[in-house]
Amino acid sequence: MHSKVALCLGLLASFSQGAFLNRRAALEDCLSGSSTLVDEVGSDDYNRDITPFNRRLPFKPAAIAVPTTVEQIKSAMACGSKLGYKVTAKCGGHSYASLGLGGEDGHLILELDRMNSVKLDKETNIATVDAGTRLGHLAAELFAQGNRAISHGTCPGVGISGHVLHGGFGMSSHTHGLALDWVIGMNVLLANGTLVHASETENKDVYWGLLGAGSNFGIVTSYELKTFEAPANVTWFVVNLPWKKNTTVAGLEALEDYALNTQPSELNMRLYATRQFTQLEGSYHGNRTDLEAALEPLLNKTGGRLAAAQTVNWIRGLEHFATMKLNQTYPYTQQEEFYGKSLELKGLNGTAAKGFADYWFDVAKNETAHWYIQLDIHGGKNSAVWKADSKLTSYVHRDKLYILQFYITTSGAPEKGIKFVNDWSSATTTPLVASDWGMYFNYPDTNLNRTRAQEMYWGSNLGKLQKLKGELDPHELFYYPVSLSPAQKPELA
Predict the structure, then answer these.
(1) Residue 52 reports pLDDT greater than 60
(2) pTM of the model
(3) Residue 51 — φ and ψ, nearest 5°?
């Protein structure tokens, strides 16, 4: 009897392995017939394209296709769909959760970073940008072609698609809004293989869904971006804060009052702290004299001291925060090993501020692994993020004052680092009601299950987004571990 069971199990395993290999061979055959370049397993290109930004989270795809035209993207998508593979577009590969590699094994990856054209129309100042363009390349090209810019994040290797489709906060956001606020149109391939144009006037529901939850609905192939004239000068700065455990809550409350009521639109700023120091850092769109005048009331209330400031041109200002070459294209090889988590908060005061500060000084100051926190000022009465039309896009957290990011290196001890961050987050959010906080998708948290992730990232927009997912991608071709669940169509009686 036992031998028969063993034989059956062996045959089943053999059959499963054979089916897997046959399906993989069918995928390779389909891709080879589509004229799309496919990375050969073990080649230099394959090894670069499979390498995750976060070394903690490597995944093995079914195949990596490297399209260079829209038709090739469409053909590769069709292969994945026909053979039952989940299809994932990888643009910058900078995801904290390796979502560009599918967030799990077995996806068909479409590596888009060879598609990085940026073309500025000098009559309209509208830029047409390929979906695989990295932020640093975009910034360099817009400036070189016409002294233009958009608002975007500070890391030059980040791909425009993951960034802009889920928000896109950076050191110009208080002045000019989120990256997604500069998108006026997109060409997108939907799960059924059709290419549509989405804008405020065409396919408005698709446009709304893409700008806030875009990785769930299709593969954007290009963007049309309005631009602004790059300022003649910006002033980067660092303020040292001498905060102790018994002064931090008062300092946070003074910062909150300033951010809500006083901070001018020209001032972009965040609190940045490590075990060794606490600072404010940022970029002022203007000169040092005006910066000092803008900061004076805040410094008086927080005990801060302006430690460094320099007025530079637009590109030098971007390079200051990039900490690497700005114009990043292919290949891009930056790697780290870490756990990250975000909170979007309406405020950080009272008991929440006390819980946050107590953990900071009682626990975090004694943690020897490298960690940092960044408390970005996202809102306020003068913030362009708050002034934008909240109904135009599905980005749900415009009402939040802060984006708080926790980061810790995890080399050799990931569980310890994950617990450290989650305990700090819990100390902060426990006193808050659900409507006072959420999470930012562009700092994805690998500790969330799918249900909780959707609630945190998309909040009150979740039902409408799930309905749209059910209409556009009911079979979840564009699935990943924390993707939107499609709403189920009601059964007819």
Answers:
(1) yes
(2) 0.94
(3) -75, 125
